[in-house]
Amino acid sequence: MILEDTQISAATLDSKIPEGSLAEKWDKHKFNVKLVNPANKRKYDIIVVGTGLAGASAAATFGELGYNVKAFCFQDSPRRAHSIAAQGGINAAKNYQNDGDSIFRLFYDTIKGGDYRAREANVYRLAQVSVNIIDQCVAQGVPFAREYGGLLANRSFGGAQVSRTFYARGQTGQQLLLGAYSALNRQIAYGKVKMYPRTEMLDLVLVDGKARGIVVRNLVTGKVESHSAHAVVLATGGYGNVFFLSTNAMGSNATAAWRAHRKGAYFANPCFTQIHPTCIPVTGTHQSKLTLMSESLRNDGRVWVPKTREIAERLRKGEIAVADVAEADRDYFLERKYPAFGNLVPRDVASRNAKQACDDGRGVGTSGLAVYLDFADAIKRDGQAAIAAKYGNLFEMYQKITDENPYERPMRIYPAVHYTMGGLWVDYNLMTNVPGLYAAGECNFSDHGANRLGASALMQGLADGYFVLPYTIGDYLAKTPYDKISTEHPAFKEAENNVKALTDKLLSINGTRTVDDFHKALGSIMWEYCGMARNAEGLKFAKQEIRKLRDEFWQDVKVTGLNEELNQTLEKAHRVADFLELGELMVDDALHREESCGGHFREEYQTPENEALRDDENFAYVAAWEYTGAGNQPVLHKEELKFENVKLTQRSYK
Amino acid sequence: MAGNNPNAKPMNLTLRVWRQKNRTSPGQLVDYKANGISPDMSFLEMLDVVNEDLLRAGQDPIAFDHDCREGICGMCSLYINGRAHGPERGTTTCQLHMRHFSDGDTITIEPWRAAAFPVHKDLVVDRSAFDRIQQAGGYISVNTGGIPDANVIPIPKTVADKAFDAATCIGCGACVAACKNASAMLFVSAKVSQLAMLPQGKTERKTRVENMVAQMDLEGFGACTNTGACAAECPVGISLENINMLRREFISAKASSENV
To answer: Rounded to the nearest 10 degrees, how much is the dihedral formed by the CA atoms of B56, B62, B67, B72?
Structure first.
């Protein structure tokens, strides 16, 4: 439902999709965009915020092209961005396995996996450039897994019936990021990129309606500084940490994107969050983050719970061991319900089914909030050594955290917040509605619709940074005068003063509750009412609760120390202040979208078999929200999604 | 909510933590109580609990670096009871769990100690020297685009696997912290070996090793005296063989330098 005071913009958003057939659009567009002459590129400055796969690849490539780049990250080194933690792999339509893959099939799988809520033209382009990414990474020295013949190996991932996932054991994100980091380092050494680590963006600066710079805080000294440029790229990742507990890094935050939103950039589909099915379950209130067990494990692991509540209860109480549960008493529910895809159904489907099994009283582990991921059959079939070669580091990680040996007893897993499909709205050029402001990687909303398929995040981050932005940003810069803007400009001074005032306010409240306290409270509201399943009543309640919590935050938060020092509490306070606004927008978006699609499951809208029930007639659009002030209802802008190359059908993995 | 092991009892610990206001101030060890610590907590979650108590008491919490908390980003960096990343082999601080400690223990927590890693605050150190070493040559000079198909260059699986093993370095700096000379040889050798093994990296192998080693020396890291402490404490098992390879690469490069 749309809340009464929400305005809906009459104009539809222009996504600037080029003319022509799907397969020709990108090539034609690359020819039609304006170019900047090589000698003139050095007259343009570009700011890149974030140095994960999207940011590092973009910054490096801009530097190679000749632009002057300033890159920023809050970590102590660009190599630590959370892309590093991606485990399973990266998709590419190489068809090296001769198993029927093609650019169109990768496009089709991604559109379908996203439950028909992504833009066709963007997704097709993503599939097209996917093949270049693998070539690029190999040339950089990324040590992908190989077959004995020396050629690249592939494995399969959820939502696909071909093997198109390239991988480097369970550390693919690390290897790809280190590749992009090495390209970035080369440009830093050449002086084309200036790197600012331990620096956090706290505001976007607009001059004449265009993005012309940012205000940052040096996280070591506290100094607030401005940087000006001709264009600004945000590659700052997702906002999963709004839930407090997620598989994101502790520092992952939405502040750069949210401050840009406050300055006018629309935020699209914020309620589309991905709950990953295979994470290590929560052990207690001290829990600070959740750890993913790669989806690739579902290639060999079988997901099950006991057939009856009685057996599950005896397991939870420790009266019987897993090994005591007879084969006939096990319910391999994914294989039973989805024989075609089995354990490799997409993430949203796997997560929801795990939740249903636990809600049914058949969950395992002491909390009852876990299902088994069992490797016994795979080990019997292939031997322990073969399983260790594929997943060794994941098994080790599991054992370190749980103190249980997954070679001997099944893993216990439960869904956890992992990725956010929503993000800043961008057009085909990856530019937001604010001229000169771009968003790349997880930070934008563009390619995954309502559910992202496994091994597609790495693909999108690198596609945006290596192969899309370097073309599209040139088109904008070619139409932009060379003139630089001084950071003495009143717009910069005003933004700096606002940042300082906000910091002063946070430091002056001196209340009784810690930042983490508020963050955990927000997280539990979001998980309960805007998590794996949502309904109108719960969402309305959540909205009120978030508003109350936000008011309390601004009256009662306790932030110790000074601005002029390394102050991790202050850093968190800025981030949580933004999460407290973003959480409400997610709830607004979830409430207004009266259908179920992908990761957005509204209990009121489901098929008789409990699958997500889309409403293509009324909701085949991108919901892009405009900020109108904290506590005010945002304005809704719609971008209609046109499907000319795929037929909208009920997603079936049976 | 119960943990993995319902019989595990909470522990009371004493922490001796290095506190240092900033780079120029002197530091000291300060004692704190950590009570009611669950064995299922990670070491950093234990510090979270202590910091929440400090905050509620209006005191400055202990600053420490951490991010992914799954052992891969390399940000966490604590020297625990005289060992880089604590008592468990092959484990980063974030993956170290309190079940490896006992009720009543006193735990000493210090930052990495090395001249090339100055302390920013408390347990947070400046490891930008590592980035500068990588900038000196830890890459293959290819621009984006115009690359031939990835399968044009077959690479024997054994070579690819060995290169991968070297490439898994997380850049945490435990090798430097563990070394009595604060040498960065293991860190540098991991990248030199990875790229020297792969056909793509061979073109620049000589200039790479010379430039990276020169930068390493410039940053003030100590010399390697082959004690092997680095590899013993490396959380991801980077092998000493890489240092052997670096030496061979370095000698061969110096014998016929391509640096002009």
So the answer is: -140
